[in-house]
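Notes from hallway chat w/ T.B., transcribed later so I don't forget. T.B. wanted the structure written out for a chain they're using in a teaching module, and asked if we could keep both sequence and structure tokens in one place. Agreed to drop them here.
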Amino acid sequence: MHELSIALSIIDLAEEQAQQLGAGRVLAVHLKLGPLSGVVKDALLASYEMAVEQSSIAGSKLVIVETDLRAYCPTCATERAVISPVEICCSECGTPTPQITSGRELEVVAMEISQ
């Protein structure tokens, strides 16, 4: 279950940033998560909830925004939704496309803090 190590890394990052900012308390950590990240959302949420209680940001929440799987279609010459993570093809014309533009994300994008 690598989600626990990811949760611990997110907590470390949030603690470090809160300390640098002189924040009184971290209320929430916001994360973008793509379908190709290799992370199970529910397992990450459960791991975060368990791990955060033993940290300096206890009580904070992990807010996950799931991103869509999108790729650049050379036939349509634009970015399009992908049919499925197994079959990476343009949803409009069906052309296979290896140029993924969104869907691999696993990134902390914001923190809610109180002073």
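Follow-up for T.B.: The two ends are 34 Å apart (CA to CA). Might be a good example for the class.
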